[in-house]
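Reader question, answered in our methods column.
A reader sent in the components of a multi-part assembly and asked whether the whole thing could be modeled at once rather than chain by chain. We filled in our standard form and ran it. Here is what they sent:
COMPLEX SIZE: two components
ENTRIES:
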Amino acid sequence: MDFTQTKNGDTLIVHVAGRLDAVTTTEFDAESQTWIADGNIKVIADLSGLEYISSAGLRSILTAAKQLKGAQGSLAFCGLSGMVEEVFSVSGFAAMFPMFATVDEALAG
Amino acid sequence: MTAFKATADLASLPAIRDFVLGKAKEANIPITLEPKLDLVLEEVLVNIATHAYEGKAGDIEVECTAAPDAFCCSVRDKGAPFNPLQAEAPDLTTDIDARPIGGLGLMFVTTMSDDCTYTRDGDANVLTFCFSL
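And here is the structure of the entire assembly that came back:
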């Protein structure tokens, strides 16, 4: 997996690319641990480069979301398409998180 | 028909995936079906690798069949009898705080495939999932 971080004001934007499956969740977990550790609690995850996600990936996302919420932070998503969008929809994750089409729309809230 | 056999652990996932997606390509399944097949296969395999042998070593066997109207995959393990199609449906309407971690994998198996059957064959669990073509 590839992660690219950019900062806009107090919001951390993380561009996530690759496959988030049972084999690669440890990479996502390591990445999300850095968010709060670096003092970032408002996070937008741009999933436009994410090709695939499974329940193992959702597990990692929910774990990160619970930690951010516990720190009075937030996690929003943008750029979902294809099977990633379908998995978010079927699992109810699309209703549980703020979802946006683009990074700009997510920043505008 | 050839079966692919591997040890029931997460490290076997990429090799089994290569085998099944290779068979799917040979069968010319539509490109739009591939991610669903990929997902259902992963969820079935992860469930077996995590639970079937309760920490002991065991095997997973995978077979693919291609017919004009469907592509099917049968996954066999020799763990304790377990029918994944009878797993309790998760509550999908809760907020982040109330949402339990996990429980979604088996739901994807039934929602993303077109047909799913479970049989206990002697000392083996056999789960077959199909995608209509």
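What stands out: Chain A is about 45% helix and 35% strand. Chain A touches chain B at residues 21-23, 52, 54-56, 58-59, 62-63, 65-66, 69, 82-83, 87, 90-92, 95-97 (CB under 8 Å).
Send us your own complexes using the same form.
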